[in-house]
């Protein structure tokens, strides 16, 4: 007997396929204006429309924005790049004690209203605020089920007691837990090697994307990590600073796309940056 699909289940699949067309994706993350402040952007990229246009030209698979930024920039991304609305956030201006949680800054309904293809929400797994973050995530997940909206969890292990948040056992615990509470996609930390990242992927029954991290000194270093993520069975990357802190953001995205979608060698991908 053919399995029966729910209407919202179909909606999730349709939207997911608009992002992960071949099962893989390169997503531009640009919530840094909230999370870190404008200091994260190089001068020519202070205008978000400039960077959105540059990554659209490279054919990036999706863009992750907070609600307000999505609203202000819609003419740059509409009909060019699938939108993921990040519905949780915090600033780095808060006191230290407040850094272990994120607040709701948009709703799933906002994402629907904006024409988004997915919603993203952070959980700081293991944080002193994990309890309330999980309640928040559960409510977001429930709304996503209603609207057929795929849900990406930024699965970030974090807490004052954590000495190494990139430790494979901690990262794979967070990624696995995220899948178990209903995430359709996971974005999590690089664990330092292909071998350990494979352990994360194996333990996680939904696609795992690597979270970019601070800009590497050379573009090649980021491409090398991306290559290892893909070799480990990862389904792509969600990257911010490694793209928008470089003037040649279009070429950088093209190079990352080449590794993710075409299994290109680093040398081949580097040719796009020459
Ligand atoms: P990057 O590729 O620049 O690391 O972006 C990923 C991201 O999760 C952003 O979505 C977010 O703004 C930032 O990192 C948060 O970083 P952190 O929590 O380490 O301050």
Characterise the protein shown here.
The chain has 274 residues and is α/β, with parallel strands linked by helices. The protein has one domain (7-273): Aldolase class I (TIM Barrel, Alpha-Beta Barrel), CATH 3.20.20.70. Helices cover 45% and strands 16% of the residues. The protein has 13 helices and ten strands. The strands form two sheets. Strands 1-2-3-6-7-8-9-10 form an eight-stranded parallel barrel, surrounded by six helices. Strand 6, helix 7 (130-147) and strand 7 form a beta-alpha-beta unit. Helix 8 runs parallel beside helix 9. It is globular. The termini are far apart. The relative contact order is 0.15. The mean pLDDT is 97. It binds 1,6-di-O-phosphono-beta-D-fructofuranose. Residues 29, 31-32, 35-36, 154, 211-213, 239-242 line the site of 1,6-di-O-phosphono-beta-D-fructofuranose.
Question: What does this entry show, briefly?
Answer:
The chain has 274 residues and is of the alpha/beta class. The protein has 13 helices and ten strands.
């Amino acid at each position: 007997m053919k399995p029966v699909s729910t209407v919202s289940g179909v909606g999730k699949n349709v939207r997911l396929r608009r992002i992960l067309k071949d099962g893989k994706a390169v997503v531009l993350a640009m919530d840094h204006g909230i999370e870190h402040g404008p200091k994260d952007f190089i001068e020519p990229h202070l205008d978000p429309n400039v960077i959105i246009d540059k990554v659209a030209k490279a054919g990036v698979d999706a863009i992750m924005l907070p609600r307000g930024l999505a609203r202000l920039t819609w003419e740059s991304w509409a009909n060019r790049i699938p939108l993921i609305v990040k519905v949780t956030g915090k600033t780095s201006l808060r006191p230290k004690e407040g850094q272990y949680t994120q607040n709701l800054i948009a709703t799933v309904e906002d994402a629907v209203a904006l024409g988004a293809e997915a919603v993203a929400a952070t959980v700081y797994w293991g944080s002193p605020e994990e309890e309330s973050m999980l309640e928040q995530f559960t409510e977001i997940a429930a709304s996503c089920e209603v609207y057929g909206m795929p849900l990406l969890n930024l699965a970030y292990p974090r807490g004052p007691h954590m000495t190494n948040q990139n430790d494979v056992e901690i990262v794979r615990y967070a990624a696995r837990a995220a899948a178990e509470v209903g995430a359709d996609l996971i974005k999590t930390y690089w664990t330092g090697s292909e071998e350990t990242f494979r352990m994360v992927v194996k333990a996680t029954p939904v696609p795992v994307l690597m979270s970019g991290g601070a800009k590497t000194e050379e573009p090649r270093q980021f491409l090398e990590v991306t290559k290892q993520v893909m070799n480990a069975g990862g389904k792509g990357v969600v990257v911010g600073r490694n793209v928008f802190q470089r003037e040649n953001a279009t070429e950088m995205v093209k190079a990352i796309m080449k590794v993710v979608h075409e299994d290109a060698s680093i040398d081949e991908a580097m040719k796009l940056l020459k």
